[in-house]
Design goal:
Length: 231
């Protein structure tokens, strides 16, 4: 593996990885770049230092045009600032809500977005201990998800990557929907959820990444209560 591949590695705690969140494909890509760049450069590794992400960096990482990258950064200045995620507090197990960024500024003359990560995000991407790293952190090469066109594919890959050593995992349906970023009002019919979210994501993961996955339904009576995956 080349140095570039080794460097372009997304690393975050399992808690952040399994958080309930709602990000667009462009936003989740920006957060992946933010995690990589913060850890590699040290910029933005705290809550006070702006982390710059250039449009050319986004374009190169995800194979899009510079114009598309410019538009993503401009939109993210407003949209990413509004996004939040929900995770469980390690002290008492209670749900906590946090924004991804505390500040966002687009520098149009330089085609750069500067963001400041929130304390919760900084904690979940920097707290690495050599002994704990293999068991407490999810890590994968950005190249594995960069070609994916669906945000559900990216999120499912992140979730399943956490369990690739165990080779299997089960998800409760309601929690699973929240982890993928599916709104309560979206794809309420199971047939729609499977067609437009789950099967789409599984097929794209199998086609474009290093994981090979399959799933089966977990039923409670006649109702589908969740899904069991083989990784």
């Amino acid at each position: 593996m080349s140095d570039k591949k080794l460097k372009n590695e997304v690393v975050k705690t399992h808690r952040l990885n399994t958080a309930l969140q709602k990000l667009s494909l462009a936003e989740i890509r920006l957060m992946q770049l933010a995690i990589i760049d913060a850890r590699e450069t040290g910029a933005g590794i705290d809550t006070l230092t702006p982390l710059p992400i250039h449009a050319s960096r986004y374009a190169e990482a995800f194979g899009v045009t510079r114009q598309t990258a410019y538009e993503v950064l401009i939109e993210a200045e407003t949209s990413l600032f509004k996004r939040y995620f929900t995770f469980l507090d390690e002290r008492d197990g209670k749900p906590v809500k946090s924004h991804w960024v505390s500040q966002a500024k687009y520098l149009d003359d330089e085609a750069i977005i500067e963001i400041m990560l929130t304390p919760a995000v900084v904690k979940e991407i920097t707290r690495i201990d050599a002994i704990e790293a293999k068991t407490l952190f999810t890590r994968f090469a950005l190249e594995q998800v960069a070609p994916m066109k669906s945000v559900y594919s990216v999120r499912l890959y992140e979730l399943l990557n956490q369990w690739k050593q165990a080779k299997k995992v089960s998800f409760d349906l309601n929690t699973f929907r929240g982890q993928l970023g599916v709104e309560d009002t979206e794809y309420k019919a199971m047939s729609d959820f499977k067609k437009r979210v789950l099967d789409l994501a599984v097929n794209e993961i199998n086609e474009k990444s290093d994981l090979k996955v399959s799933y089966e339904q977990v039923k409670k009576g006649v109702a589908i209560a969740g899904f069991k995956f083989k990784v």
